[in-house]
From TrEMBL, chain A:
<comment type="similarity">
    <text>Belongs to the bacterial solute-binding protein 1 family.</text>
</comment>
<dbReference type="Pfam" id="PF01547">
    <property type="entry name" value="SBP_bac_1"/>
</dbReference>
<keyword id="KW-0732">Signal</keyword>
<dbReference type="InterPro" id="IPR006059">
    <property type="entry name" value="SBP"/>
</dbReference>
<protein>
    <submittedName>
        <fullName>Sugar ABC transporter substrate-binding protein</fullName>
    </submittedName>
</protein>
<feature type="signal peptide">
    <location>
        <begin position="1"/>
        <end position="22"/>
    </location>
</feature>
<dbReference type="InterPro" id="IPR050490">
    <property type="entry name" value="Bact_solute-bd_prot1"/>
</dbReference>
TrEMBL record, chain B:
<feature type="domain" description="ABC transmembrane type-1">
    <location>
        <begin position="74"/>
        <end position="285"/>
    </location>
</feature>
<feature type="transmembrane region" description="Helical">
    <location>
        <begin position="216"/>
        <end position="237"/>
    </location>
</feature>
<dbReference type="Pfam" id="PF00528">
    <property type="entry name" value="BPD_transp_1"/>
</dbReference>
<keyword id="KW-0812">Transmembrane</keyword>
<dbReference type="InterPro" id="IPR000515">
    <property type="entry name" value="MetI-like"/>
</dbReference>
<keyword id="KW-1003">Cell membrane</keyword>
<feature type="transmembrane region" description="Helical">
    <location>
        <begin position="78"/>
        <end position="99"/>
    </location>
</feature>
<comment type="similarity">
    <text>Belongs to the binding-protein-dependent transport system permease family.</text>
</comment>
<keyword id="KW-0472">Membrane</keyword>
Length: 436, 295
């Protein structure tokens, strides 16, 4: 009985899908809030483009990166649209793994994209990926705690001041820690933050001959400062805190200060998600020796792999998902604090966004001051603020991140950890053929 | 060709034909992946940098064997296996003796004590990480606060020990299960006779129960060792091999090479070294176990 009903139904469904002639494209993306919203708007897209069906593969960041890298490097062709970061785009473009996006429709308004973001995604003047959302880093703090301690936030805080303030508001007996920072090892986790700290202390990853400088005095000073700061005024278990963990700590009122991605601002400012929404202060990322490279630059972008069979349909989708209309659609349906930030000037000119998001100016300023081509005090051979845009950086960043995690946990002294990191980076670079 | 009473022939060409397909399939199943691993281990093959390719000679092996991280990982692997085996065998034996006694609710108690083995490793590790060992929300932190002791941040101050505790918690029930069944086959008359001769409970345990369990213990050691060499999920979920390399074992080391560095060549070389290591262990084990099983 049951089968009799099911079979015709299945047959009808197959017929229907043939009749529609819809092209299915597979979109691989990361499980961040903004992408979940994009997935939720699938119907809107399919209504406007009845000839294209969307299929989603939503994964956690590390897993996504593994799947995409193995797929694209082995020419697997599983995905038509890939969500990649600013680190991958120039490297993959050089390998001819990504489709060049030089014939975008007039209505897309390419010039509206923020310049540092657009530059990061271009190779020889043409775009290889379209930015979905962009971010820099900034400082969040609790205005109530600062008021109680009588601290006035200057226009540009310095790390020395931050240390001083942390000592004043640190109150572990009441579950409030002076400052929360990333401690979880990984090139995209603790190293994103530590790299900017090293930049502003005047250090760099490599000298002009690609010799690593991980155990230079600047690195030792910066990492030593970070470890002391976290041990004195940080939350316990900091070595397992990444972006998400710190966001949870800060929004539940357990941190006095937090320096991290600008993309957290929307959530922290939303009273449904955060207990500190009404006592939230913003400031630029603190600086030490130099303002250069004190805040990072990152964007999540949509790109089309050359192995895709549906390049045109994929292009239709990515221009839709990164367009001005999409941002307005999200603003109208989800609320203006939920729109993907950091990609278009028009978003920041929009009065509705300005009204809903008081942090907009900070974010825009932070993104515009980050310059991947000039992020270190001494000259460096590489491009990138918190990353080094070479294929080996994933391995290098992972190794150094592990060692700094060990120093933070007190397993090793800062000097020993950095010396060991230096040796292991030298090995990796030699193996990759940068020098003998 | 001998003929059995049943009329079936043993050996000869016909058998070869019948067994051939199955044996070939099994060989392919085993040899193809092994061959590919060997092949890749001699290639310069990094997924994110296809510019560098070609035959690498012994390069992957030299870089690997001169990498201090490999030796740290090997040391950690041995420590992990050794400690978990010691804890689970000693604890398992004692618990098996305990759970053999008659007491009220024995059936339910046995079920509960075996339960950890049926929890998926990832889930078990998550429970330990977030509910027991967490320095802020964990039960252990709450307990030490209650007693006025300093809170231990388990995964950063004693990472390998924490992993050993979690893995031992998972594998002790397995040892218990095997040893309990072995104890149940112990002849009651023998124990009774010993008791009548004036042997105390300790003497009975030492001279009767333990020799009786010898076989079962060697089986436990063999099976557990095979699985413990490849522990991964617990490390991945809790410490990610860190801080530094403090809890990186060989399996996790290879994972870092293959899926974080995307260095297929180096990871394959690591895989080959792991296979060699596992085989050395297996040879020793099978010899000792075989000796125990003969009697």
């Amino acid at each position: 009985m049951y089968l009799k009903h099911v079979l015709p139904l299945a047959g009808a469904a197959t017929l229907a899908s043939f009749a529609a002639h819809a092209e299915t494209i597979t979109v691989a993306t990361v499980n961040n809030n903004d992408m979940i919203i994009m997935q939720g708007l699938t119907d809107e897209f399919e209504k406007a483009h009845p000839d294209i069906d969307l299929e989603w593969v939503v994964l956690e960041e590390n897993v996504l990166r593994q799947r995409l890298t193995t797929d694209i490097a082995t020419d697997g062709g599983q995905f038509d649209v890939m969500t990649v970061g600013t680190y991958e785009v120039p490297i993959w473009a050089q390998q001819d793994w990504l489709v060049e996006l030089d014939d975008l429709p007039e209505s897309y308004n390419e010039q509206d994209l923020l310049k540092p973001v657009r530059d990061g995604l271009s190779q020889d003047g043409s775009l290889y990926a379209l930015p979905f959302y962009g971010e820099s880093s900034m400082m969040y703090y609790r205005t109530d705690l600062f008021e109680k301690a009588g601290i006035e936030m200057p226009e540009q805080p310095s790390w020395d001041q931050v240390q001083d303030w942390a000592s004043q508001i640190h109150d572990p007996d009441n579950d409030v820690y002076g400052i929360c920072l990333r401690g979880k090892p990984g090139w995209g986790e603790n190293m994103a933050f530590v790299s900017t700290l090293v930049n502003t202390f005047g250090g760099r990853w490599f000298d002009e001959d690609w010799q690593p400088e991980i155990n230079s005095p600047e690195w030792k000073e910066a990492v030593g400062f970070y470890v002391d700061l976290m041990n004195d005024y940080g939350p316990p278990g900091a070595t397992s805190n990444g972006f998400n963990e710190n966001q949870a700590l800060f929004s539940s009122g357990k941190c006095g200060m937090w320096v991290d991605a600008t993309s957290a601002a929307g959530g922290l400012y939303n009273p449904d998600e955060s207990q500190v929404a009404d006592k939230l202060g913003f400031a630029p990322a603190p600086i030490a020796e130099t303002p250069k490279g004190a805040n990072w630059l990152w964007s999540w972008t949509l790109a089309i792999p050359t192995s895709s069979d549906s390049k045109d349909a994929a292009k239709t989708f990515i221009t839709w998902a990164t367009s001005q209309e999409y941002i307005e659609l999200v603003g109208e349906t989800e609320g203006w604090t939920s729109v993907p930030p950091g990609t278009r000037e028009s978003t920041y000119e929009n009065p509705k966004y300005q009204e809903a998001a008081p942090f907009a100016d900070f974010v825009l300023n932070a993104i515009q001051t980050a310059d991947p081509t000039d992020s270190t005090l001494k000259p460096s051979p590489y491009i990138g603020v918190q990353t080094v845009n070479i294929p080996e950086f994933q391995a290098v960043g992972t190794q150094v991140g592990q060692m700094i995690g060990a120093a933070l946990a007190g397993q090793q002294s800062v000097d020993a950890a950095l010396d060991q990191a230096q040796r292991s980076v030298e090995r990796t670079m030699r193996q990759a053929g940068y020098y003998d | 060709m001998r003929e059995r009473t049943s009329g079936r022939t043993v050996g000869g060409f016909r058998n070869l034909f019948l067994q051939g397909p199955a044996v070939t399939l099994l060989l392919l199943w085993m040899l193809v992946p092994l061959g590919m691993t060997l092949w890749f281990s001699f290639q310069r093959y990094n997924l994110i940098n296809p510019m560098i390719s070609g035959f690498a000679g012994w390069d992957n092996y030299t870089y690997l064997l001169t990498d201090p991280a490999l030796w740290t990982a090997m040391g950690n692997t041995l420590l992990l296996v050794g400690w978990v085996l010691a804890i689970s065998v000693i604890g398992g034996t004692l618990l098996a003796v305990l759970f053999q006694q008659e007491f009220f609710g024995r059936g339910i108690a046995r079920l509960l004590v075996i339960a950890p083995f049926f929890v998926m490793p990832t889930v078990g590790a998550l429970v330990w990480k977030n509910m027991l060992m967490h320095p802020v929300n964990g039960v252990f932190a709450w307990l030490s606060n209650l007693l006025g002791l300093p809170v231990i941040d388990w995964f950063s101050s004693m990472p390998l020990a924490s992993i050993i505790i979690i893995v031992a918690w998972q594998w002790m029930p397995f040892a218990l299960l095997i040893l309990l069944t072995a104890i149940q086959s112990l002849d009651d008359d023998q124990v009774e006779a010993a008791r009548m001769d004036g042997a105390g409970p300790l003497a009975i345990f030492w001279f009767i129960t333990l020799p009786h369990l010898k076989r079962a213990i060697s089986v436990v050691i063999m099976i557990e060792m095979i699985f413990l060499l490849t522990i991964f999920a617990e490390i991945f979920v809790t410490t990610s091999g860190g801080p530094g390399l403090a809890s990186t074992n060989l399996a996790y080391f290879i994972y870092i090479r293959a899926l974080l560095d995307f260095d297929v060549g180096g990871a394959s070389a690591g895989g080959v070294i792991a296979i060699i290591l596992a085989n050395i262990v297996a040879i020793f084990l099978i010899r000792t176990v075989a000796k125990n099983l003969e009697t």
